[in-house]
């Protein structure tokens, strides 16, 4: 399906929602009765398409979906995805990137959680490809955002795009509740969330090494760190 010329539709009892893909399948534009949809509705449309049109086979019961905290997309994961999207959009110009594409990648970087935490990066790429996304930098940012940079370069022999570096930065600066807390607090957040789990060591080591990679990449490429005022106070509700 050519999603650059066709729209996705979901009809409820009282209204119709549509989504149109533009910019060569990289950026999503959503409207409902001439009004922009909320972030939750955007992802809701994508989830609806995946679940009802078979882009990815689902093996998750509704009760498990509702009660899972770390394994699937619930209100906490949604808050993180929105926070990463906003972060990436505001930092896009510092990386010389398109803010709309950055927002889209941030909003959908964890869409693979529809199929569970393990392997969510690969599933995320599959979902986006199923929706018609073809831009390789966009797909790589989703597929590799949880992978150590040295693996991306040395095992998969891929160059790391600025879009992937920004995705690393945002994902490791926004906590599980969607607050911009910076690298140090985010590492503490990951440490707390994964402690006691079998994947703990791998998760904390990957995050720590990725933070150091981002700092070095920024230094080599003349990208400044965000000003202190760019971040929220940890634990403070946003206005």
Q: What features would you describe in this structure?
A:
The structure is a single chain. This protein has 239 residues and is an alpha+beta fold. The protein has helices at 39-53, 62-67, 75-91, 99-108, 120-130, 136-144, 149-154, 162-171, 182-194, 200-221; strands at 7-11, 16-22, 27-32, 35-36. The chain has a four-stranded antiparallel sheet with strand order 1-2-3-4. Strand 1 (7-11) and strand 2 (16-22) form a beta hairpin. Helix 3 packs across helix 8 (162-171), helix 5 (120-130) packs antiparallel against helix 6 and helix 9 runs antiparallel to helix 10. The termini are far apart. Mean pLDDT is 74; it is low at 1-37, 54-70 and 234-239.
Distance between the termini: 41 Å
Instruction: Using the 3D structure, state the CATH architecture.
Output: Orthogonal Bundle
Could you state the order of secondary-structure elements as H and E?
EEEEHHHHHHHHHH
CATH class value: Mainly Alpha
How many distinct domains? 1
Major beta sheet, specifics?
Answer: 4 strands, antiparallel
Strand order of the largest sheet: 1-2-3-4
* The CATH topology: Hypothetical protein af1432
How many individual β-strands?
Answer: 4
- The helix-and-strand class reads alpha+beta
């Amino acid at each position: 399906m050519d999603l650059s010329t066709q729209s996705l539709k979901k009809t409820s009892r009282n209204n119709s929602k549509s989504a149109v893909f533009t910019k060569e399948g990289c950026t999503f534009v959503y409207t409902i009765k001439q009004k922009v949809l909320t972030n939750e509705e955007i992802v809701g449309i994508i989830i609806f398409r995946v679940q009802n049109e078979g882009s990815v086979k689902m093996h998750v019961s509704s009760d498990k979906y509702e009660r899972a905290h770390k394994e699937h997309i619930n209100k906490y994961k949604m808050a993180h995805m929105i926070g990463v999207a906003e972060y990436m959009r505001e930092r896009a110009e510092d990386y010389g990137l398109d803010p709309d594409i950055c927002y889209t990648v941030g909003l959908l970087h964890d869409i693979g959680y529809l199929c569970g935490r393990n392997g969510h990066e690969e599933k995320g790429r599959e979902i986006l490809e199923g929706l018609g996304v073809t831009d390789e930098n966009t797909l790589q940012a989703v597929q590799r955002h949880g992978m150590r940079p040295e693996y991306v370069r040395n095992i998969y022999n891929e160059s790391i795009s600025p879009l992937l570096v920004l995705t690393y930065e945002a994902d490791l600066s926004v906590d599980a509740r969607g607050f911009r807390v910076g690298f140090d607090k985010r590492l503490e957040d990951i440490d707390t969330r994964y402690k006691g789990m079998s994947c703990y060591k791998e998760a904390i080591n990957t995050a720590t090494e990725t933070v150091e990679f981002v700092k070095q990449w920024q230094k080599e490429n003349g990208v400044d760190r965000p000003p202190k005022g760019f971040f929220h106070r940890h634990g403070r509700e946003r206005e």
